[in-house]
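Q: What residues go here?
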């Protein structure tokens, strides 16, 4: 089942939470199609909503993006990506596999998770790890700020080019 989506942005990559919904953006070079799968619970064997991204409206260069209004706290999601299967060229697209968002910040592991299912042919939806919207998981629209010790904070400042400020 598809859902209504709104204009979206390719940047920043990953998920960006807004008061009215969430913008999803993922890098996927060499593919032909992307689906965003939304799950109600970590143990759901099938998504409650599937959003097929439009290759014109939701695709910028190698980035696929979509804005979904009305996402609620704790939303669990994954992707399906279609494209060529040519291992000799490094291409292993399989539209039956549910993929983690490589930019996700938290995972939702179902009770019947199976890493082996990911390597077997066929659908792995019922046994795949999915991503949970981290900021929404804690019920807030802003990222969760943790108090860090001065030593850890100093290391973060040095290793992230002053992205973190005191």
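A:
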């Amino acid at each position: 089942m598809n859902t209504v989506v709104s204009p979206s942005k390719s940047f920043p990559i990953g998920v960006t939470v807004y008061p009215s919904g969430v913008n999803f953006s993922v890098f996927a070079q060499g593919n032909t199609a992307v689906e965003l799968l939304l799950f109600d619970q970590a143990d759901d064997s099938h998504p409650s909503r599937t959003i097929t991204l439009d290759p014109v409206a939701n695709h910028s260069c190698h980035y696929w993006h979509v804005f979904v209004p009305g996402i609620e706290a704790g939303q669990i999601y994954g992707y399906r990506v279609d494209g060529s299967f040519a291992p000799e060229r490094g291409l292993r697209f399989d539209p039956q596999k549910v993929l983690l968002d490589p930019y996700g910040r938290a995972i939702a592991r179902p009770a019947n998770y199976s890493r082996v299912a990911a390597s077997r042919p066929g659908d792995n939806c019922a046994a795949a790890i999915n991503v949970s919207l981290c900021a929404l998981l804690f019920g807030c629209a802003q990222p969760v700020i943790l108090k860090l010790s001065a030593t850890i904070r100093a290391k973060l400042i040095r290793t992230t080019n002053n992205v973190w400020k005191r």
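A: Context that may help when evaluating the design: The radius of gyration is 17 Å. Residues 14-159 form a domain with the Immunoglobulin-like fold (CATH 2.60.40.10).
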